[in-house]
Every structure is written in structure tokens, then in C-alpha cells.
Amino acid sequence: MRYTSAHTTGGAAAGAGRTAASGEPRTTTVTRLSPRFRGPRGTGRATALGAAALALALPLAACSAGGGSKAPTGGSSSSAAGSAPSPSQSPTVDPDAYRRALTGALRPLDSALRTVDGAREGGALDTALDSAARKAETAADALETVAAPDNALSGTSQLATALRALGQDLRSARGSGGRCATSPRVELDTAHGPQSVKEAARALKALGYDTSLRLPRTERAQHRRLANGAFVRDGSRGGLGRLTVNNGTSSDAVVTLTRGTRTAFSLYVRKGSKATVRSVNSGAYTVYFTTGEDWNGGKRSFTRGCSFEKFDDKANFRTVRVAGGTQYTVLTFTLNKVFGGNASTSTVPPGEFPS
């Protein structure tokens, strides 16, 4: 509903609202608007539809209550339908089958090691060492592919690694055949491979798996020495010459004098000592000397820490008769380098050193 009212102002106050041209009074119209009220539409129709819906819902509810079928709930499913079957465990390796495989892999190596144990030092021992080294590597290959029980997996891997190290040590222990050659059995005594094999074998034996592996015998390093001034080799001496050797090195030494291709004599001089040879025949000699540790009398050589040298100048011994007597040569050789020394030395290949 719209309400309209009109107000007319006049008098003195109204003069302010007149126009300058006409002086007529001005009328102002004010319009007020208010929202229109509407009643709800279709009220009767909605009531009828609601009654019909209620009538339909009642038979459905009754059917649901009596039909016995239930809608699935959102809860957990039954154990029979929801639990997945557990995976089947892999069968355990038969310990007896593993023992047979272990024995088969190690038997050829065990036989080769027994041959090493009984071989004489030299070519026979070197050949046996080569054969055993190959068998050790073959056994390691076999163990890396063998099926082992769970409790023996680590020990089997440890034994395979130890056998490879043993093969390398067996090859390294072979004698060089020359001078200053340490015995293969001494080399094996300080090698790590045999010790690693023993440790791996003990670990498997503690689990009930016997390796049946016999390692060859070894020898401890020796420290053989001759007495100071002892002759390693002595020829015919009948002159008046005199030779003194002063060994100030940290190793024992053997000094050898030769004339041409023949050895006149060889003298053993311990470290920090000196020795003298008398009755040296007249002549020009080449002076060789070797130093080292552990003198092997059979090979006439040291077995460890060897060096082979010679003096560049020859040693000249002369015996001359003079008025009132005989004049002869006295020489002193110092093996260690000294300040103000007047003799030079050169290295000699071991094969060229006189025996």
C-alpha cells in the first residue's frame, strides 16, 4: 500500500521557497514505501502431499521390518571374508644336504693341502702350492652357490672369502728359487688367509657343520747366525796380506773376495763388529758383501732383508821383499758409509753374487 501526502508552506517563511520569477508557492511531495505482506501460497496443497507421503512410508517400513533383509552396515567385515591367507613359508634347507655339499666342495682342496704338507722344499713344494691355490679358488666358487641353512649362511660366506685369501697366500708363498728366498712355510706362518680359514671353520663347526679341512704345516721365522769372523768358505791362503772388515751396518754381513771367477774366501761379520783375515795372498781381488737376516748355510745366503753389493775398486795385496825385511799390504774395508770415506760401492744382482 502506498501512502502519499502533500504539504504546502506559505507566509513569511514560505517566501524563501518562491521562485524569483513568479513568486508562487512550491509544493513538495514525499513518498513513503513499505514492504507488501503476502500470505503463504499453496498451503492446502502441501498438506495433502505430506499426507500421501506418510501413507506410502508406512507400508514400506512394515515391509522392511517383516521381510528379514537387512542393509549392510558400515562396520568391520567378518573374519572369514576379510582376512587374507598368510603366505606359505619357504622350506628350510636340509642340514644333511648342506653337509654333503660342503664336503664335496672342500674334499679336493683338502687333498691338495695334504700334498703341500708333505712336499719337500723346492720345485715339488712350489708345484703343490700352485695346485692347492687353484683348488682353494674352486672351492670358494662352489660355496658361493651352495644352498645353506639360515643359520649357516653367514659362516658359508665367511669361509668362501677366507678360501680366496688362502689361494692368494699359497701363490705368494712360492719360493723365488734365488738368493734371499724365505721358506714358503715361513711365509704361510704369517699369512692372514690360513688364519681366516680356521676362524670360519670354527664358526661352522659350532653349528654342527664340520669342514674337514687340514691346513699344511708352517714354520716360524728363524734367526740363524754364524760366529763373528767365521769362514763361510776358505781357500788356500799363504801370503802375508791382512784384511780387516768393519761392519757398522744394522745387519750381519758376509764378505767375499774373488780373483777372476774363483772365490778366495768368504767371511762372516756380525753387525757392529769387525773381523780380520790374515795370510792373504798377493793379487787383485774384487770385494763383494751381502747383508741380511737369518743365514741359511745350505744356500749360503740370508733369507730376509738381503742386499748385495761390491766395492768398485779392487783390493790389491802385494808382498815385497825389501832391505831388512818384507813389505806387505794391510787393508781395512768399512761396510757402512762414513764421512770422508774414499771407496764407492755398486749394487749387484743376486744371481751374479758369488757363492
TrEMBL record:
Superkingdom, taxonomy of origin: Bacteria
Disordered as annotated region, ranges: 1-44, 65-96, 172-194
Biased composition (Low complexity): 1-23, 65-91
Protein name, as recorded: Uncharacterized protein
Species in which this protein is naturally found: Streptomyces lydicamycinicus
